[in-house]
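Researcher: Sequence recovery benchmark, item below. Answer with residues only.
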């Protein structure tokens, strides 16, 4: 069959793509940025498109014509500069369903979410439910799948946060640690999609995909810590106000393009509990969904998992330190520009040129210090930091070489900062 997977390089979408390829289908994937996906999955025909801009059936018709099935694994957690929940979850899905009906697409698998509800005050759950309603009201052979907390070898979003908290040194911090959670392996989600596409599930059915028993978040975190091979640690409940403060900061970073999973929407979902009903799936299928222990056992952790888990929490610290360092350096240089210029003047540089150089250097420091906090500009800002630092070192070596031996080490101390920039570049990718 010819199958189109929306969000084909996401946490669930990528697993679905791999499973459908193994099933022998011809797979196309759609997403906003498919460059990396094209390298990793050359057997897939990738389509670069933003769902939030495909809001009419006519927009979708060229994409879905000729397809036998559609899998919608696309979604966003919260509104932001790149994400508009109503457009992605509702408007685009309404248009997509209409296009599928016109183009004669047979089957439609919708990846929804546990807790999707029209009456929810949370925009994520409300818009997801409206998208589900558009699918369920159609004439297509539809299946709506609502996964619990998806556990996968890939690590970003909520799964990355779980790993990071589980690897916290000394203890495991947890907000709402007693809230019930039901997990599901991403391979089980892909299996369910495979069956829906093949028509081996009853058409026009909606089911939860969750393990049989719920467990508190604290137990999930402890299981991940054991999976990482780290010593047992005590769960330390974190006051809700601290969680709300962290979520507010994450929301602010979201406006700068950083897609942290620790946002208000995520806390709202946790407060509801991530639970569903395993019974309906077990009645439809002879493939019971595996519990968390089996999911983790099927994807053994090695040293790269521990590196990732530890670096994930260090990442905001790294970027925050770099931003503060460069902003402070630039501001101090501008405040004390006469002293800075006098060093150059003492080496034979004209006073005007010395002051212009100090002003330009201070402005450059402030510019890159601010730019590194903006996700779309971060890579260029980090590369600029490297270039500026190397220029400073070269200029200082030529003009004031004795600074290398100065007691406070003003030049020597730039080397660790340069190394930190290289670390920031190494951990910049989010998925």
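Model:
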């Amino acid at each position: 069959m010819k199958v189109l997977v929306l969000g084909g390089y996401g946490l669930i979408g990528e697993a679905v793509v791999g499973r459908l390829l193994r099933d022998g289908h011809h797979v196309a994937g759609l997403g906003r940025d498919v460059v990396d996906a094209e390298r990793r999955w050359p057997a897939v025909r990738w389509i670069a498109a933003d769902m939030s801009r495909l809001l009419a059936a006519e927009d979708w018709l060229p994409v879905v014509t000729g397809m036998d099935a559609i899998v919608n694994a696309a979604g966003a957690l919260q509104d932001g500069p790149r994400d508009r929940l109503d457009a992605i979850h509702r408007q685009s899905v309404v248009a997509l369903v209409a296009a599928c009906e016109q183009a004669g697409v047979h089957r439609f698998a919708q990846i929804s979410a546990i807790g999707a509800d029209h009456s929810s005050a949370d925009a994520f759950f409300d818009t997801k439910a409206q998208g589900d309603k558009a699918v369920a009201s159609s004439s297509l052979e539809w299946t709506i799948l609502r996964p619990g907390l998806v556990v996968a070898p890939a690590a970003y979003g909520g799964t990355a946060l779980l790993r990071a908290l589980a690897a916290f040194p000394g203890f495991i911090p947890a907000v709402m640690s007693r809230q019930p959670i039901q997990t599901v392996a991403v391979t089980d989600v892909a299996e369910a999609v495979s069956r829906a596409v093949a028509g081996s599930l009853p058409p026009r059915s909606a089911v939860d995909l969750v393990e049989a028993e719920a467990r508190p978040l604290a137990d999930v975190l402890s299981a991940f810590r054991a999976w990482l091979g780290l010593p047992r640690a005590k769960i330390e409940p974190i006051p809700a106000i601290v969680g709300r403060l962290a979520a507010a900061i994450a929301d602010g970073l979201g406006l700068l393009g950083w897609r942290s999973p620790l946002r208000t929407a995520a806390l709202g979902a946790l407060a509801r509990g991530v639970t569903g009903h395993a019974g309906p799936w077990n009645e439809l299928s002879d493939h019971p969904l595996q519990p968390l222990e089996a999911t983790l056992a099927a994807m053994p952790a090695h040293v790269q998992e521990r590196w990732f888990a530890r670096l994930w929490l260090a990442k905001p610290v790294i970027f925050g330190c770099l931003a503060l360092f460069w902003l402070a350096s630039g501001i101090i240089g501008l405040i004390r520009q006469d002293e800075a210029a006098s060093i150059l003047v003492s080496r034979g540089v004209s006073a005007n040129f010395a002051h212009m150089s100090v002003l330009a250097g201070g402005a450059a420091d402030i510019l890159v210090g601010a730019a590194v906090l903006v996700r779309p500009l971060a890579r260029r800002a980090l590369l600029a930091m490297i270039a500026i630092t190397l220029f400073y070192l070269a200029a200082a070596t030529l003009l004031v070489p004795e600074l290398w031996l100065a007691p406070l080490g003003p030049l020597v101390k730039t080397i660790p900062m340069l190394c930190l920039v290289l670390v920031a570049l190494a951990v910049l990718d989010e998925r």
